[in-house]
Amino acid sequence: MVRLFSDDYNISRRESIILGCFGIAALASAAQLVNVQFIHGEEYRAAAVNSRTRADSVPSRRGTIYDRNGNILAASVDAVDVYVNPREITDVEQASRALAEVLGGEAKDYVDLLTIDTTFVYIQRQAEVEQGDRLREKEIAGLHLINSVKRVYPYGAVGGQVIGYVNVDGEGISGLELYYNDILSGTDGSYSRQMGLYDAPIPGGVDYDIEPIDGEDIVVSLDVEMQSFLEERVAKEVERVEGADGTGVLMDGSTGEILAICSTPYFDCTHPEKSEIGSESVKGIVRAFEPGSVFKTPAMVAVLETGAVTPDTVVECPVSLEADEYEVSDAHERPACDMTARQILADSSNVGITLLVKEYLGFSSLYKRVGEFGFTSTTGVDYPGESAGYLAEDIDSWSIISKYNLSFGQGVMVTPMQLCRFYGALANGGVACTPHFLISKPQTGEVAQYDAETIITDGQVLADTISMLESVVTDGTGKDARVEGFTVAGKTGTAEYADPETGGYVEGRYNLDFVGFLPEATVPLVCFTSVTEVAYETSTTALFSDIMTEAVARYRIAQL
After folding, report:
1. Among 1, 105, 411, 465, which residue is least crowded by beta carbons within 10 Å?
2. pTM of the model
């Protein structure tokens, strides 16, 4: 047999095939290398970095809130967030004991968090820096700390309802913290940190992508020491008369700046979870009520504006007036008698003010003027949730008793803030200033500006009204409101209030209030005081006197 190819040829052919395969593989590898390094290199490198990188935000420092004297009411301070990677925990018992020792509680409280099948669990947000330092010293595997900030309130519950508070993420929840959240809040930054095996942070592997921008500071009108006095005195008055709650307001009638304001029960910014439900808001702003006889003053102003009535105008006042199936009478028994307009206000006669409105003004005109005085709209105070009060529309369809009630503050709902604005106008030449807290932004030098509105134009009406309110204190129902060395003008109120279940007025219990000012003083301060659901007749005039006496001394107010 003749061989066409030698054995050497066959071997050479096999080698060529093998070499060819290696060549093809080498070319494929080279092509893949080119693809990885050049064509998709950046994409793969980015994916590799992303796989070991975790992005986190850097919280900005929230702006500081100062009172009018530079005292810090709210500020942000350094803190740490404590978290663990349970997969890195090597000794659960040791770690839980260490956490309990530094952060509080019992070791068993932390066991579940340390054994969850995950790589990130918060142990405590916004822990103290000192606590973070102590935890670092313990060198616990799997425990990590992130720099953070927390909100602190140096005066605790003092002014807490006004200041408000923030949540753990630094967002305003109530009060000025909420209303001015956009100003106080900064812009968070961000950083990236490189992670190793089991998501362990790589030392030195932190890059800041965006630096945080801190929020703006604000200066507000509160005087924290006056606020503390007001809160203490109002709480004592509520206890003294065994009322449900109390409210106090002290405002500069010439500017609208609120120096102090409160309503019981009080709210503690540092422990909001321990405060009573509903305590986080100032009732004097967010809750309307039937004001009672303090509302006779706007009614009297409207009557005097007709020009047909003066303080000496005499009205024949019967013991009572019939109205539908009801009778309107005065709070204090008296015989039928003649009363001047001055006496009607001083003795707080429901019958007398009703007859003045009915005979000289008309109830439709009173309704219109009440709206023009600002009692059917919000005052514009810079505080969340302000109430506009309530007054039913279409007075022409009202019952007779409803029209009569309007004259002396029943059946109408207003807020203490609206009353302070109105009485502030009496003290300020007829000009009503917008009540407010914000004064300035110190970092920019911006000073807040607010609207003012002239609501009473007749100077004689102003003078007569103030004179009549002075008679309330010197000769009428407000004698205990006197402030030594000063002329006081004001009005008492004793109002019935509705039972929310039955809709009818509660028998034998009253809401008491007084609002007044110092008409001949260097600073025309306006003060409102009230206690609700009192079981017997008294007044809050002494409360007013104490608050004003303190204010006179504190602000060195003099009689003109």
Report:
1. 1
2. 0.85
